[in-house]
Amino acid sequence: MAGKVLEIRAMSASSTPAPGIRSAPVVAKLIDTSSCIGCKACEVACQEWNDLPAETTVQVGSYQTLPDTTPNLWNLIKFNEHETSDGAFHWLLRKDQCMHCADPGCMVACPAPGAIVQYNNGIVDFQQDNCIGCGYCIAGCPFNVPRMSRQTKKVYKCTLCVDRVSVGLEPACIKACPTNCLTFGTKEVLLQKAESCVNRLKAAGFTEAAIYDPPDVGGTSVVSVLAFGNNPEAYGLPRNPSISFAVKLWKSPLKWIGNFAILAGIAGTFVHYLRFGPKHVPEDAQIKQVEAR
Amino acid sequence: MTNGWTDIANADVILAMGGNPAENHPVGFRFAMEAKRNRNAKLVVVDPRYQRTAAVSDKFVQIRAGSDVAFLGGLINYALTHNRIQEDYVKLYTNATFLVKDGYSFDETTGLFSGWDKEKKSYTDKSTWAYDIDPKTNFAKVDETMQDPRCVFQIMKKFYARYTPAMVSSICGCTPEDFEKAAEIITSTYLPNKVGTIMYALGWTHHSFSVQLIHAAAMLQLLLGNVGMPGGGVNALRGHSNIQGGTDCGMAYHNIPGYIAIQKADHAKLSDYLAAVCPKPLRPGVMNFMANYDRFVVSQFKAYYGKNATADNEFGFNLHPKLPVGAAPGTYQNWSWAYMFDHMYEGQMDGLFSFGMNPVCNGPHSRKAIAALSKLKWLVVAENFETETASFWKPEVLWLNDGKPQDVQTEVFLLPAANFAEKDGSFTNSARWIAWKYKAIDPPGEAKPDQEIIARIFLKVRELYEKEGGKYPDPIKALNWWYTSPTKPALEEVAKEINGWALTDVMDEKDPKVVALKAGDQLGKFLDARADGSTMSGNWLYIGSYTQAGNLTQRRNSADPSGLGRYSEWAFNWPANRRVMYNRCSADATGKPWDPSRAAIKWNGDKWIGDVPDYKPDSPPEAGMGPFIMNPEGVARLFVPGQFADGPWTEHYEPMESPVQNPLHPEGQNSNPAAKPFKTQWDRLGKSDEYPIVATTYRLTEHFHYWTKNNQYNLQGQPEFFVEIPEELAAEKGIKSAQNVRITSARGSIVGKAMVTKRIKAMTIAGKKVYQIGMPIHWGFFGAGEQKGAIANLVTHSVVDPNSFAPEYKGFLVKLEKA
Amino acid sequence: MIKPVKVAHGNVLRYNFTERLVHWAAALSYIYLSLSGLAFWTPWMWWVAMMLGGGPVSRAVHPWMGLIFTVAVVYMYRMWLPDMRITPTDLEWKKTVRAYVRNEEEEMHPVQAARGFDRFAPVDRFNLGQKYLFWVMFWGGITLLVTGLILWFSDYLPWSLRFLRLISVFLHPVAFLITFGGFIIHVYMGTAMVRGGFSSVIRGEVSESWARYHHRLWYDRITGASAAKK
What is the pLDDT of residues B379-414, one digit of tens each? Predict the structure, then answer.
């Protein structure tokens, strides 16, 4: 994919279709959580590539760096001490970051044109130059991803290293991962790989192993293999994420109804004036005349 | 490592015990993940805590910190009683068939071997820990049937028969069922076409019985036929990027470079010394490679003293330091770490050079270390950052000992040193790969690379000796400082010197008319070195790393035609570029590989091909030369004659501070009989009534020792010292996560944040409920972020293993309370 | 309740200075809010934000202007609550609202119109339509305030309370649309449809005949023509 130009397939608050016509295979990042050793190389690699400063943290009783991602920490390993119903213990480790949905809730909700774009390869990127800092993306995202910076008043998240991918390099986190828990490639190929991970897990006794690629957001460019596929909540993932009904209403039906209502209302006043004209107040003298009669 | 990092991908079973490779060697651990992914290998983790390696394991068993020997003994017993051993291999390649000397015995009630002196409380006579030698041949007697009750095999069976699953459960705290499930997986590699490896690290070496522990692991792997096989072996994961290079080049006080024992003060002549280090063969037809040590010793002396080392002065034998004799007859002084600090505390040292080392933090018993440093006249620290050692005299550090800066007379120098990326040179990794590294960036300010600091100090000292004279200046004046730039020795030159070269023309040993090496040629193989002073070599082990072909440590060819991860042309793998050691064991008596899919070497009719054979290359299988070419008996030692301080077999001894009486001999010896505590006021050992909780210390992925507390990104990942506490224990004491708790031992106390976790469970040890807690080591007083002086070693003690002198950082007793 | 003031040359004071000031504070802030809001509402109107200082500036100023609007609405509530209660007379008037809207009284002869006006139930200070506008703006304003605060500090809200964000995303524009509908009608009626309405809220005065014609009960009360209390 080196040298291929990335085009915008869709963008936020666009009144016209996006201009790109070149197609590109959808890329994906595969996270095989059963191979994650929680080393946090991905956390730091992302910060180093993007020149982000380290966060000041405190020990709260967990190996997890912070409770959630921040504007300076775009991916975070979540550590969950999980006991299954039969008493077996597992330390579930999962890299949490933007899922790069095919149908991104952030982009649907965003009112600023071009603040959120989706490239033809599936990467969803925030363009902070166009961002107005309203936080609608925070409402639209089903995965609790966008983070507002208090200083710049813009939102930030994982970019799937679009700057690296567009010149044929793999994302920084994937390069840093020592156990090949993270792999990068086209989604088609990676889904096959995910399938073989799931089969391997099933053979090892994890009968509920599954691929997490939620259909209600159109699938995601970040695909996870979960040993306990029937229990995504144990990994901190929502079970059936989708764009909220409220956001969908705001985006579509309400827009049309509202725009029509406003135009109709304004036009209506013109029509009313043409038809019925204004109210006249009769002169005092005339009224007195009438009253005198 | 006997094998290597890339070789782990060839394993069917990986036992990660006494080590946490996913945590502390995440990059090397990728090969374990490849084994899992590509060949469905099973990863078994046995550890006091469920840690990051356990998170990706197929089977996890929790054991009490300090009970590993019992677990391994249980595995040995399991393998023997279920006949899950590779019998042909054991007969051919181990000393299982050897007969043991008549006087040898072991008392199961006292837990002591023959030769114990009750009054002196030590082994005064280890002569019975020996083979039965045939006086006519001077070879050890053997019984090929392994039925003789005096043969090693039978004695071993009897010795380990006590390590039943129930006994393992009692000592280790795991259930017998869990132990057996793990044992089943681990011993499944006894089949010739199945191979298992062991990855271990400081969880095994940080005990007062560590060498015996590793002996037990080696025994297990030998019984299963895993040593010398690709995907097998006993793999020690070193704890620093170049500590392998450090120990290779004589960092330990009792060795000279190349793991040759240092000469002793009572070796009057060079020949006495060489007789001590060059053993005699114990079986016919063995290679007994150590008999060649005379070449390497003489070549090393020639490297040190150059023209000042001649046949007339025994090649400078009397210039080289010798280990002084000890107080008791037949003993020598001990200047290993803990002993050195003890000597220091007793006022026996004037000064210390501490280069890239932070003893106050990383040595055991920080308070004793601080007290000891306070007795020095001078201290020179070369470091990248201010450390607790360089600043031991500051009030916040001295406060730990109720000390005051005005009472400390030590003159301290802190020299800024270049760090690893600011200088070239080489790193030798755990797999013995010597890899050249290049300088990436200039050191800041006045920081200098170590070789320049040492060179400048040496040259100045030599100048002062020449001007002012002094006590025995000869070694300093005779030292060969030949480098092109004396104050800034180029490491390329040092690398050449370590490999060594011929000083004069050297003749072929088989045909003396043929010139094997011309004067000035780099040595190409071990036997190029000569004992007559015609060659020089700084470290025989590294011969072959810098040959006439150049600096082979710079090679980066990633071709792997064998498919076994050999990468024979990537860097240089001592010894002689062998990737898997003891690889003769990978083939049977006829030279055919036990497992054709994992063939290290095989006999092609003329010579051994494949990996570089760890063997005489043209010795045919029928000659039956023993595969363990360094051992005088040619085979591996299950029973270890004479060498160890604490016995020829590995017996479970409790840690020095133990919560229970040793279940194997509750009326007898509790802990390692040869491990001796020090006697200063600081050296207090606690009892379990006052200190009921077993504690262990360890590292975290996010940090490296006490260095990364200076880096924001590392601190982001793990900002503060914490204590991992089992949920049950926390509930009992009303402790919640993130609350401050205090850990106290007989030596000191530390305060940290509680981490209440499900990953450590309560255990029943010898019928008693015992809790374990764990704490990471990486914080101190100086660094970025908020440093609260929480040094883990404030609570550890300084009793060491009697063979390797490694301190018992894991498996000691503490008490826990809210702070 | 204001003091009835009869101003010279046949006018009465309908709105005093404070009332007019507050009204225009509300009106102008609402206009800004609508303009910037429309830009957020639809990309077709995004250019409006550009004219108001750009996207980020509009987003930053919009909520502060909302606070100003809220203060004005609350002030108006305090000032006019007594006048805005809906009475049985209003409900009577409601029966003839169709004729009112269609300006049917205009089709009559002026004299008859004056009489015909009598067939509408008498109106106090504000007619039902105006009262409805008041309440729409008041409740709409509260809704816009609450949902607006949630949207303003979207990133401070914890994930467990995200349903509040989602409700606000939907309700804020709905409240806008409803109040904007009221705004359109109010501006139309106050300027084009009811002559004299605009100057009443600029200069404060209306003619006595205007007062008698449109707000008979109020006129009678402030001129003391009727002893009937509200």
Answer: 999 999 999 999 999 999 999 999 999 999 999 999
d(CA B335, CA C111): 124
* Nearest CA-CA distance, residue A125 and chain B, Å: 25
Mean pLDDT for A100-104 is 97
Lowest mean pLDDT among A38-42, A243-247, B536-540: A243-247
Query: Could you read off the pLDDT of C124-166 as tens digits, one per residue?
Result: 899 999 999 999 999 999 999 999 999 999 889 999 999 999 9
- On chain B, the residues whose CB falls within 8 A of the CB of A39 are 22-23, 26, 52, 701
Q: Name the average pLDDT for chain B.
A: 96
Please give the pLDDT value at position C228.
46
Contact: B52, A204; criterion CB under 8 Å: no
Find the helix or strand (DSSP H, E) in which C111 lies: helix C110-116
> Which positions ≥6 away from B461 have C-beta within 8 Å?
B476
Under a CB-based contact definition with an 8 Å cutoff, are residues B453 and B417 in contact?
yes
pLDDT at B792: 96
B739–chain A nearest CA distance, Å: 8
Which residue is listed with tokens 């004036």? A273
Tens digits of per-residue pLDDT, B641-691?
A: 988 999 999 999 999 999 999 999 999 999 999 999 999 999 999 999 999
Residues in chain A within 8 Å Cβ distance of B23: 37, 39
pLDDT category of residue A233 using cuts at 50, 70 and 90: very high
Across chain A, mean pLDDT equals 93
Of A112, A144, A282, the CB nearest to C209: A282
What pLDDT does C92 receive?
A: 86
SS3 (DSSP) at B516: strand
The closest alpha carbon to B48, from B547, B697, B622, B625, belongs to B697
Closest-CA residue of B relative to A82 is B758
The interface predicted TM-score (ipTM) is 0.91
- For B137, residues 6+ apart whose C-beta sits below 8 A from its C-beta are B284
Q: Which of B42, B43, B56, B720 to mutate to test the interface with A (most CBs of A within 10 A)?
A: B56
Return the closest-CA partner of residue A95 out of A145, A170, A135, A146.
A145
CA-wise closest residue to A127 among A145, A107, A143:
A107
Length of chain A: 293
Quick one: pLDDT at residue B786?
84
Chain C from 66 to 95: CB within 8 A of any A CB: none
Could you tell me if B121 lies within 8 Å of chain A, comparing CB atoms?
no
Using DSSP, state whether C9 is helix, strand or coil: coil
Q: pLDDT-based confidence at C194, cuts 50/70/90?
A: confident
Give the pairing of strands A89-96 and A76-83.
Answer: antiparallel
Touching C (3+ Cβ pairs <8 A), the chains are: A
Question: Is B585 in contact with B634 (CB distance < 8 Å)?
Answer: no
Residues of chain B with pLDDT under 70: none
Looking at B411-537, which runs of residues are DSSP E strands? 411-416, 425-428, 433-437, 501-502, 506-507, 515-517, 535-536
The answer to whether the predicted template modeling score (pTM) of the entire model surpasses 0.90 is yes
Q: Say if the Cβ atoms of B701 and A59 lie within 8 Å.
A: no
Chains that touch A (3 or more CB pairs under 8 A): B, C
What region, left, alpha or beta, does residue B27 occupy, with left being phi > 0 and alpha being psi -120 to 50 degrees?
alpha
Radius of gyration of chain A (CA): 26
Contact list in C for residue A282 (CB cut-off 8 A) is 110-111, 113-114, 209, 213
Reading the block at residue B553, the tokens are: 């440590």
Peptide bond into A215 cis (omega under 30): no
> At residue A81, what are phi and psi to the nearest 5 degrees?
-80, 110
Query: Do the Cβ atoms of C194 and A279 come within 8 Å?
Result: yes
